[in-house]
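Handout for the seminar on molecular recognition.
Each group receives one record of this type.
Step one: identify the two inputs.
Step two: read the structure output and locate the region that could contact uridine-diphosphate-N-acetylglucosamine.
Step three: write two sentences on what you found, then compare them with the reference statements printed after the record.
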Amino acid sequence: MPDRGVVVHITGARPNFPKAAPVIAGLTALGVEQLLVHTGQHYDDRLSRVFFDELGLPDPDLNLGVGSGSHAVQTAAVMVGLEQVFVEREPALVVVYGDVNSTVAAALVAAKLLIPVAHVEAGLRSFDRTMPEEVNRRLTDQLSDLLFVTSPDAIGHLAREGLAQERIHFVGNPMIDTLLAHLDAFDPELAAAAWLPAGVGGAGQYLVATLHRPANVDDPAAVRELVSVLHKAAERLPVVIPLHPRGRAALEAAGLSTSSGLIVTDPLPYTAFMGLVRGAAAVITDSGGVQEETTVLGVPCLTMRPNTERPVTITHGTNQLVTVDGVLPVLDQVLAAAPAPRPAPVGSRPPLWDGAAGPRIAAIIAGYLEAR
Ligand code: UD1
């Protein structure tokens, strides 16, 4: 076997874990030596530990424990920690995931040390520079040698930003690998029984909402409007709201609490959350990942944002963009419409969202390492 060197994976925040799991498994199957680093950006067990347990991820070899802070403080702490790791371990390749602060920090450190970078979920663009993730995406892609894209639109974005065609690989969506691998464990009846009060709704008779983005939860006046809309949605069907720690205080200060049709919970483990989503009449969210997961599950998704970096979830999926003023009429339309098949039939899913993105990425990485 050729000496391909060690591949170092950088994970830090909740959405990274379901993306990394299939890539790590694919490389393990090819016998590639790997090191898993957790930056510690997310440190709550409910945002981190439970995902490692459920997704069968190996324990991180290193945890930098950077924790929370302003963008500069957090990004800088990840950079300082990773520089030492990369100098000591001399990775053959650093793999980064998604668009969180840990992603761009790792890519920048690796590039300065002349270590090649692979970006999983490259090329997504909201064209909204007020989102910190958009800044992270653009910079990470510029610094990456291997750009793994989940949808064809991403290829055009990267080409327009001057990135060479031979770096770009359309491989599908590894987060959907994770979803399809666990589909049988997503039990809507169990989720409804766990989270809805006895006698109130069952599978298909409740809504799920998740909201944590700065644009939705940082301005107190906007938060009050949002909470008022959630109360009105709860007059239609009970709404289960697993609350991300970010924004929790603001939402609660604006009157969000378990009452009259609203069920507020802590963040949920992966299978419990996906079970809940699978059985929801509709989901109201500002998450990126949930737009993709509802697309494959065939669950209507109302995205509370002015834009999305994942347009394929609108053209091929169940996603619609909504405003806080417009969400209730759209919700009423969705609830009145005939339900679509669940999960979405294979033929109507976005191309290559087929459960095999991890092995594709692993094969390209192995070939890249052998050619060096
Ligand atoms: C990060 C990502 C965002 C992603 C989200 C998913 C960036 C810029 N943002 O946002 O793209 O959608 O993860 O969860 O990287 N906190 C805790 N416990 C934790 C982690 C955070 O209580 O384990 C609280 C702290 O108050 C912290 C705040 O959440 O200040 C924000 O955490 P941070 O990691 O900076 O960003 P997220 O909002 O989680």
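Reference statements: The chain has a mean pLDDT of 96. The two ends are 14 Å apart (CA to CA).
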